[in-house]
Amino acid sequence: MGVGLTLGISLILILTFVPRVWIGVISVALAIATWEVARRLREADVLVPRIPLIVGGQAVIWLGWPYGAMGVLSSFMATVLACMVWRLFDHGLRATPRNFLRDTAITVFVAAWIPLLGAFTTLMVLEENGARKVLVFMIAVVCSDVGGYAAGVLFGKHPMVPAISPKKSWEGFAGSLVFCVIGCLLTVTLMLHANSLIGILLGVALVFVATMGDLIESQIKRELGIKDMGTLLPGHGGIMDRLDSLLPSAFVAWAVLTALV
């Protein structure tokens, strides 16, 4: 609780007073998250090219600053190509590559899952009222988490997908939906001065996508036979364990707020 509260307050202060620093914070967090996932995959004998993946991931994030969405997309494609070439010669020039198709497919997934989706938070902060948009997004995620946890603990009786995440319930999903929609309704109207229907749409979309993101990471960890992606945050796992629902939600928030606000 203390770690999460400290991080939350720090991010709010950064967004309020020095919003451009947000890009640096995101770049560090995503680099660590990429390293955590790559390390776990290598433990499972999946050879993900960590160096080009992390370096390319930084390009995906930072090139969004001067070049916008085109910079993000171009650097993502360059990262994918660099990782494919790196993996091709991972065993040396004379050895025949093993599991090349599997490893490159997983590498592309990781590149899209972490730096590409994460880059949309940097695109968001660079827009007009960007800091406020990111705050709306973060408040929505917090509301969703709080509502889901409270409703799940108090009323959770019907598992949503027990084969993937036994603790996730339909009651918790409903709690997330109610809290997130209320949070988005208030923040979109009060902070962005936009139509209340946009807040409702954003809240519904974020809860659905955040839930899917959480389930996707749960399935990945289940297949890898691990509980957490990392150990950097005591009691919370690693950085990636905090970003599982945030990353896909960032894209949805950027798309909705850019198109409609």
Account of the protein in words:
The model has no long low-confidence stretch (mean pLDDT 90). The longest helix is centred in the C-terminal third of the chain and has 29 residues, at 196-224. This protein is mainly alpha-helical and 261 residues long. It starts with a helix and ends with a helix. Strands 1-2 form a two-stranded antiparallel sheet. The protein is 76% helix and 3% strand. The chain has 10 helices and 2 strands; from the N terminus they run ααααααββαααα. α2 packs antiparallel against α3 (50-62), α4 (64-88) runs antiparallel to α5 and α6 (130-155) packs across α10 (246-260). The protein has 2 domains: 17-126, no CATH class; 129-261, no CATH class.
Describe the structure in brief.
The protein is mainly alpha-helical and 261 residues long. The chain has 10 helices and 2 strands.
Helical content, roughly? Answer: over 70%
Instruction: Please count the helical segments.
Output: 10
Low-pLDDT runs of 5+ residues are: none
Instruction: Give me the side-by-side strand order of the main sheet.
Output: 1-2
User: Total number of β-strand segments?
Assistant: 2
Number of domains: 2
Gyration radius, in Å: 19 Å
Mean pLDDT metric? 90
The biggest beta sheet, please?
A: 2 strands, antiparallel
Output the helix-strand order: HHHHHHEEHHHH
The best one-word shape is globular
Q: Termini separation (Å)?
A: 33 Å
Structural class assignment:
mainly alpha
Strand content: under 5%
